[in-house]
Amino acid sequence: MGHHEKEEQQDKAGPAHEVETLLAALADAGRDLGPALAHRLRETLAPLSRQVRAELVAVIDDAFEVAPDLMTARQQARRLLRNAKALEAAQAVWPAYPERPAPVVNVEPLAPWLAHIDRHCELVADDRRYLLHHLSGRPQVEAMRLAHRYVEAWAAAADAESQAHRRANAGRRAANAMLRGTTP
Q1: Cα separation of 124 and 176, whole Å?
Q2: pLDDT band at 155, cuts 50/70/90?
Q3: d(CA 184, CA 21)
Q4: Model's pTM, two decimal places?
Q5: Fewer CB within 10 Å, N side or C side of the chain?
């Protein structure tokens, strides 16, 4: 393979299944990303080349290695993924690292209970619709109480699932079942 062909491959996104392999490798190394960070990392890694993915995962692994506790490790990893200066440094080292997406404007703010769930769970559009259907008509205090229970049910089921790629769906099923049990 010639030098120019190697350069072209460095700019192409790697196969999608490799992202899950990298996340599973982090989990196997004892790096408990949690659903929200795993989702953010999955979205960040998707458009990257194999080399850039591997280097970014190594940086995230290092953040967990040097952090004194799990919460600090997750915060540092999130900071690495969203911080403008960290992004500039990554782009200097890896020119193929994508630009930060433009902020979305004119978006209705999330209800506090939905924002809480969204911070802790790997939600998809159908989850948001489901949650809005079941919680939006409730008083804010009750909706927030149920949001906390939803996050707890999600986390417990996701933690109990041994296979990393099945954790989000296990959490989703358990949390939705809990919510159905509390909804008239």
Answers
A1: 13
A2: very high
A3: 41
A4: 0.48
A5: C
